[in-house]
Each structure stands twice: as C-alpha cells, then as structure tokens.
C-alpha cells in the first residue's frame, strides 16, 4: 500500500448508481427500492435515461467496454510519463523537494549531468566496436517503465484465484461464513456469522511490481511487499494464530493474549509475537531472514537458537550457516522505507539494489561482467520510473542499458 | 467508524496537498481511467483525452489548495478535464468553421457529467469481471471480444488450435456472470462457424 489506509470516497450518490447499473447489467434482480432509485435517477436527465437504455444493448456495451479497454492498454505507460512530469516539476521549482536524497546522492546527482554526457558518448563509442546485432539505445530514449502499484492474487480455500486490484471495491468472496471484502485496495475479513468447523486457509500473493495491504480475520494488519506471499486461516481458533510468510511483510499484530501470534518463515524460523509491530524480510534470494522489531516484543526460534528482541533490535537468521545474529539499534526508518514508498539504498551493494528494482519494476537484471563493487547511499522515491532511478545510480560509475524488461548492468 | 474514515480521508487530503507522490499514485490509479473516459466521450479522441487526464492530475499537483473533502477534490479534477475538453472542442470547431463557414451552434450540447461518471464507473466494474478471469480465459476474451480479432488470428497469437480456442471460449463464457458479455462473446463464436 503505498501509504496505507485511504478513505472511502464520498461521492456516495454516483457510487450507488454505478453499482446498481452493474447489478442490472449482470442480470441480478434489483430490490424494489433499488429499482425506484434507478428510475428516479433516470428521470432526472435525458443522458441518465439514455445510459439506462444503452446498457441493455449488447452492441453499445461492447463499444463502451472497448473504449475502457483501450484506455487501460496505455495506462501504465502514461503513468510513467505522469511521474516523470511530476519529477521534472519538482526539480525546476524547489530544491527542498529533494531533501530525502541524502547528501551523497545530491552530490552524485550534480555530477550526473556531466557523467551522463560522458556515458552517452561511451555508449555511442563502444557501439562502434560491438557486433552489429545489439542495438544500443540510450536510457532516456527507452519507453519509461512505470513503478509498481497495489495489487495481489488471492487464492481461496478451494484453489480458485482472484486478482485483487486497487480499482475494485466490494465483497469478492465468502469463506466459511466470513465475507472477504476489498475496499480501496485493501482486503479485510468480515466474520459476520462465523461457522464453526474445519479451518480453511487463504493465501495472498503479490507478484513482482505489486504490493498489498490486508487485515487478517483477527484485525492484524499486514503490508506485503512485492514478490511475497502470506498464508493464513480465514478464522483463528485453537491455541494460537499461525501464519506463513514468504518474502517481506510488515505486521501490526492485534492484541490477544489468549491466542499468541506466530509467523513461520522458511523451514526453520518461527517468530512468536507478544503484541507488537515488526518487519520480516525473508526473501529466499537474500542472504538472511531479518526480523526487525519496532514496538512490543517478539521471540525468534531458529534452528537451535532462541532470542527475544527489544524495540530497535534486529535478528538476522542465516539459513546456510544455521546461525542467528542480533543487531542493536538498527535504523528502523531504513527497514520500513519500502512500506513508506521509498527505496533505501543506504550503504547498499549494487546487487542488493538490483534485487529491489527487480521486484518493484518487474524486470530481469543481468550483469555483463560480474557485479561491480560499488556501494551506494541515499533514498529514492519508489514512484519514480525505472529510468529515473537508473539515471541517479549511473552517477556512481555503473552503467545500464535496457532491452525491453531486461536490464543489463555494465561496469 | 465514521470518525475513523473521516480521519483517513483527512490523511489522504493532507498527503495530496503535501505533494506526497504515493498519494498521487493512488489518485492516478483511482481517477485516471475515469478522467480519460470522460474526456474521450466529449472529444472522441483517445490520445488527446489521455493528455487531458494527465494534465488535470498535474494541475492538481501544482495547485496550492488543500481540499476539504475527496468529493470536492474529485469535482475539481473533473472540472479541469471538462474545461480542457471543451476548449479543445472549441478549437476544432473554430478550425472547421474557417474552412467550411458553418454557422456555429455554440452551446456546450449539455454534457451529462453525472451520466458519464456513472458510465465510466460501470465500465470499471464490467471490465474487472474480465480482468479477474483466469489468465487463459481472459486472453481469449481480450483478443476476440475487446480487440475484435478474428479467431484464426487469435488462435495463432496464442499458439493454440482452433478447437482449443473454441473450448477456452466456451469456458470463459461459463465463467462470466454478465449476460450481455456472455451473449457478446458467443455471437463472436457463431462467426467462427460461418467463416
């Protein structure tokens, strides 16, 4: 969720009409008062009446839907342009907009203008010596790759899958008496009349280029980073609340002393929560599983080690070594940068950065001549297009070129 | 509950006024399609409508106002898009009048904003039904119904046989809820048999 809990829009009148028209189009029977509302609305203007008519005609609906579809086709590209425009505007208006680029990046950015010229020259020049098969295109001329956005795939107990999109609102499914509701890009479980009985599991997975927020049946909030998944029961019962995580998530666990909350990641790491907020980074292509505590207390069991964390501490479990290391006073803003819409590249190596870009921009990274040993600093807004981020990184003496969604890193 | 929502709306409005780009990503995801649809219905030109929608969001970013409600903010965005669309239309009309000397009927031909917003929101809901289909069925609906591709071309693009395409389409029709979509898609199905 880029920033979290955005409100229900308050244009309730319009909203109801579109939903009723949809109901009619789907072929559901309207309640008497719904029918009345729709008729009143239609009698208010000729346009309203015409729309009510149009939706009963297949050819008209087809045409309207094609218009929508064509708009949808260009959406991502235009989103990239939109954010490039915003970035350009901030640059020309006030410097303070770039406060979050810490000093190092600002210095690099200043050098970037010069270096860009040099690297473009280098690219053009090296082209002369390359076999003619590869066409080298300057980054600026490639189609902007838009940043990721909210979205996920929900797998229900019966194995059926639903695509969750920030655009859609409403009840998306019913699981064992609980209504699964999607609102403003956030999923919640509404256990109105819970049916006792067997426990069923749901799974929410974000592909690359998507992140998602959900509220578990007990009220626990979960922010899921890109390329991650969480498995949980649609109702918690028994002695504990048990969920399984892959990838990265930030949790704000709802208090319930009777039912301890446990997160399982990988085969051997279990995090037992004692009422609290914390971040877990358990991507399998990272070196360690890192649990960082913000508030409360958590206990980590990994291999034969057990540790209880205090706020500001981080436990790094290294599966290859069956080892656990506790770090004190970690920078929690840095850990939560992803949830707050930023990339944090403070003291990061190039391959760490590239793994983050792969997940968020849905790209594949290859290294032409090994991984350059540069270290980076600073923060970058996650709403930048890929090209904008790369231009900033290029000032540290690495170079990129893009072939579709494949990013080639050159020393 | 109302109180909670109020606070969250406030949080969003503050983020927008503070030029928080994550809030603008949310705005883009929520309003962009509807703004384009709206403008397109006035000027009948998709690319121009895309520019107008994007420009409206950029203007919001540039404005210094803090809106008191999402409803007002939405009203502002749509007013910008409407004005830009009408100006564009006027510009086209002036150009046309210069060449044909048509006597102008200047009135705005009363655009039913409310009907258009409802129409566009409705299309979002209908399109979602297609977007949520399992991948293999969705592709079939997109190619045959939304892109009006011939079934031979669609089968070739997907790299499957005509028989396979027919089966997938049959299943897609079963998965869809909306009667008119089912009908629209099966009509296309008939055309396969005739070709």
Describe this structure in words.
The complex is a heterodimer of chains A (411) and B (195). In chain A, a hairpin with a 4-residue loop joins β17 and β18. Chain A is flat. With 411 residues, chain A is of the alpha+beta class. Chain A has a 6-stranded mixed β-barrel. A 3-stranded mixed β-sheet of chain A has the order 21-25-24, covered by helices on one side. A two-stranded antiparallel sheet of chain A has the order 19-23. Chain A contains 8 helices and 25 strands. With 195 residues, chain B is an all-alpha fold. Chain B folds into 2 domains: 99 residues, Orthogonal Bundle (Rna Polymerase Sigma Factor, Chain: A); 62 residues, Arc Repressor Mutant, subunit A (Orthogonal Bundle). In chain B, α2 packs antiparallel against α3, α3 packs across α4 and α8 packs antiparallel against α9. Classes of the chains: A alpha+beta (411), B mainly alpha (195). Chains A and B meet through α1, α3, α4 and β2 of A and α1, α2, α3, α4 and α5 of B. Chain A: InterPro entries: FecR, FecR_C, Ferrdict_sens_TM. Chain A: It comes from Chitinophaga skermanii. Chain A: This is FecR family protein. Chain A: GO terms for molecular function: sigma factor antagonist activity. Chain A: Pfam families: FecR, FecR_C.
Rg of chain A (C-alpha, Å): 25 Å
Largest sheet of chain B: none
The CATH first-level class of the largest domain in chain B comes to Mainly Alpha
* SSE string of chain B, helices as H and strands as E: HHHHHHHHH
Most extensive interface: pair and counts? A-B, 70 and 70 residues
Q: State the share of residues found in helices of chain A, binned by percent.
A: 25-40%
Number of strands of chain A: 25
Query: Helical residue percent of chain B?
Result: over 70%
**CATH fold group of the largest domain in chain B:** Rna Polymerase Sigma Factor, Chain: A
Quaternary: heterodimer
Overall CATH class of the largest domain in chain A: Mainly Beta
Number of strand segments of chain B? 0
How many DSSP helices of chain B?
Answer: 9
Give the structural class of chain A. Answer: alpha+beta
Mean pLDDT of chain B: 80
Question: Average pLDDT of chain A, to the nearest integer?
Answer: 78
Query: Biggest β-sheet of chain A, characterized?
Result: 6 strands, mixed, barrel
Distance between the termini of chain B: 58 Å
Protein name (chain A): FecR family protein
Pfam family, one (chain A): FecR
GO molecular function, one term (chain A): sigma factor antagonist activity
Organism (chain A): Chitinophaga skermanii
């Amino acid at each position: 969720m880029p920033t979290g809990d955005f409100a229900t829009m308050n244009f309730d009148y319009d909203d109801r009409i579109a939903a009723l028209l949809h109901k009619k189009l789907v072929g559901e029977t309207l309640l008497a008062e719904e029918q009345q509302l729709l008729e009143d609305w239609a009698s208010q203007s000729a346009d309203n009446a015409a729309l009510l008519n149009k939706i009963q005609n297949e050819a008209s609906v087809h045409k309207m839907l094609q218009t929508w579809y064509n708009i949808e086709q260009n959406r991502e590209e235009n989103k990239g342009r939109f954010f490039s425009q915003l970035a350009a505007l901030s640059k020309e208006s006030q410097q303070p907009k770039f406060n979050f680029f810490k000093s190092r990046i600002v210095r690099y950015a200043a050098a970037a203008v010069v270096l860009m010229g040099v690297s473009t020259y280098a690219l053009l020049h090296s082209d002369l010596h390359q076999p003619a098969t590869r066409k080298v295109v300057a980054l600026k001329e490639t189609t902007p790759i838009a940043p990721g956005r909210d979205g996920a795939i929900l797998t229900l107990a019966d194995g059926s899958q639903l695509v969750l999109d920030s655009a859609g609102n409403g009840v998306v499914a019913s699981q064992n008496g609980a209504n699964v509701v999607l609102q403003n890009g956030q999923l919640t479980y509404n256990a109105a009349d819970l049916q006792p009985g067997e426990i069923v599991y749901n799974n929410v997975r974000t592909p690359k280029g998507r992140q998602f927020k959900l509220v578990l049946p007990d009220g626990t909030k979960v922010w899921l980073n890109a390329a991650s998944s969480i498995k949980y029961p649609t109702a918690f019962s028994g002695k504990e609340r048990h969920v399984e995580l892959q990838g990265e998530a930030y949790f704000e666990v709802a208090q319930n002393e009777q039912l301890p909350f446990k997160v399982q990641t990988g085969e051997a790491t279990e995090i037992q929560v004692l009422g609290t907020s914390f971040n877990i980074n358990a991507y399998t292509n990272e070196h360690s599983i890192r649990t960082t505590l913000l508030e409360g207390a958590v206990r980590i069991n990994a291999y034969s080690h057990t540790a209880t964390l205090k706020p500001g501490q981080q436990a790094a479990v290294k599966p290859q070594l069956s080892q656990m290391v506790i770090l004190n006073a970690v920078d929690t803003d840095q850990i939560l940068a992803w949830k707050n819409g930023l990339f944090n590249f403070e003291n990061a190596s190039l391959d760490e950065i590239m793994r983050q870009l792969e997940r968020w921009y849905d790209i594949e990274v290859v290294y032409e001549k090994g991984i350059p040993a540069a270290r980076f600093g600073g923060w970058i807004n996650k709403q930048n297009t890929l090209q904008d981020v790369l231009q900033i990184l290029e000032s540290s003496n690495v170079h990129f070129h893009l072939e579709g969604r494949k990013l080639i890193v050159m020393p | 509950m109302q109180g909670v929502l109020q606070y969250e709306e406030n949080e969003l409005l503050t983020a927008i006024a503070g030029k928080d780009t994550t809030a603008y990503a949310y705005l883009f995801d929520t309003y962009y399609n509807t703004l384009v649809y709206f403008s397109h219905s006035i000027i009948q030109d998709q690319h121009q409508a895309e520019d107008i929608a994007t420009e409206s969001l950029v203007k919001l970013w540039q404005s210094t106002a803090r809106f008191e409600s999402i409803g007002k903010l939405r009203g502002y965005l749509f007013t910008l898009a409407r004005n830009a669309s009408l100006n564009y239309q006027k510009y086209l009309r002036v150009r046309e009048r210069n060449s044909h000397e048509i006597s102008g009927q200047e009135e705005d031909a009363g655009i039913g904003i409310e009907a258009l917003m409802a129409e566009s929101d409705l299309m979002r809901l209908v399109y979602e039904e297609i977007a949520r289909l399992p991948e293999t069925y969705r592709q079939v609906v997109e190619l045959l119904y939304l892109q009006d591709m011939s079934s031979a071309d669609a089968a070739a693009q997907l790299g499957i046989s005509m028989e396979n395409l027919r089966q997938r389409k049959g299943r897609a029709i079963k998965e869809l809820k909306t009667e008119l979509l089912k009908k629209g898609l099966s009509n296309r199905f008939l055309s396969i048999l005739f070709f």
